[in-house]
Amino acid sequence: MKQVTVTYFAELRERSGLDTEQISTDSKSLADLYLELKSRHSFTLDPAITQVARNNEFSTMDSSFEDGDEIVFIPPVAGG
User: Fold this and answer.
1) What three-state secondary structure class fits 48?
2) How far apart are CA 22 and CA 7, in angstroms?
3) What φ, ψ does residue 19 adopt, rounded to 5°?
4) Which residues have CB under 8 Å from 13's CB, separation 6+?
5) pLDDT tens-digit profile of 39-54?
6) For residue 79, how far is the Cα from the chain centroid?
7) Given this model, what pLDDT does residue 38 score?
8) pLDDT tier at 79 (50, 70, 90 boundaries)?
9) With contact defined as beta carbons under 8 Å apart, do 73 and 51 qualify?
10) How far apart are CA 53 and CA 60, in angstroms?
11) CB half-sphere exposure, 51, CA atoms < 13 A
């Protein structure tokens, strides 16, 4: 079981009601972690359109992560 800190932005923050949370997980990849959180918080965004950063560096959803990592899920951003 890994303990990680997850930070949410925009729609994901609104859905979860949290800026950050610490969770314990058995997920192996960032995609698995996102799907776990999607189920927990009823996220509607497909992981294919969601960006992710691990320890302040952009990563890919198929990447693994370690105990103590800081994960940020970033939804698509529209500009104007």
Assistant:
1) helix
2) 9
3) -80, -45
4) 19
5) 999 999 998 899 999 9
6) 22
7) 95
8) low
9) yes
10) 8
11) 10
Amino acid making up residue 72: V
Longest dimension (CA), the chain: 42
Sheet holding 57-59, edge to edge: 20-25, 2-8, 70-74, 51-54, 57-59
> Side-chain half-sphere of 76: how many Cα atoms within 13 Å?
7
Phi and psi torsions of 58, nearest 5°: -60, 145
**pTM of the shown model:** 0.91
Q: Which two tokens stand for residue 2?
A: 């890994």
Does residue 33 contact residue 53 with C-beta atoms inside 8 Å?
Answer: no
SS3 assignment for 56-69: CEEECCCCECCCCC
